[in-house]
Write a structure and sequence with these properties.
7-stranded mixed sheet; 6 helices; Spore Coat Polysaccharide Biosynthesis Protein SpsA, Chain A; two-stranded antiparallel ribbon; alpha/beta
Length: about 240
Amino acid sequence: MKAILLAAGLGSRLRPYTLHTPKCLIEVGGKPLLGWWFDWLQEADEIESVIVNTHHLAEQVCAYVAQVRTRYRFGIGTRHEPTLLGTAASVQEYASEPPCGNDVVVGLADTLVQVDWPAFRAAHRNLDPCYGTLLLFRTEHPRECGIAALDGDGYIQNIVEKPVAPSSDLAVAGLMILRNGVCEIRPTAEDLVGGVLTHCASVPRGLAGVELPGQVLDVGTPERLVRARKLVGARWS
């Protein structure tokens, strides 16, 4: 199985931290966010290769990957985007690269996710959605997230990106397993949630959603970065 880590964003909301450091290399708990992802993927023995896309301060990301790639059993490659493709187009392009299995793991490299891989993978297999399974979590900031509505069987009925009047606090986290059918959908917006996943959710049994024990930490603003550093320093290894 292949994994795609989306790491090319400008990190505008996290300035001034990201003026000289790409957001995916911001340190939390003494480790760059990208390092947390690589370590987590190492536990998922099905992952054979990882693609990291780059744009902002790309040379730093490439240098970090070159420094750590021998620590991991899977191959790590970078894909530079001179002009940002947008997360929807990035996922579709890299998911269609060989090797092309039916499933691909997609992670937002600027989010901290620590959940049980076997449980997530099992949920995806058991629910068997048409397009993929999304990790969901409870957020304190629903107006700034993609908010999902679940039916009684674990399938996502709809996703509303950054709703003015949120219907719940159940948000799309930065981790998903997508099926290669998403590459056939014409994006209606640049971002993955608004451009592709909202369409997938409109199809019966198109997307599954699952909450799991563990941690999902958004580090998208300076305030949340400070909070994440406190939480990780106190509770994580």
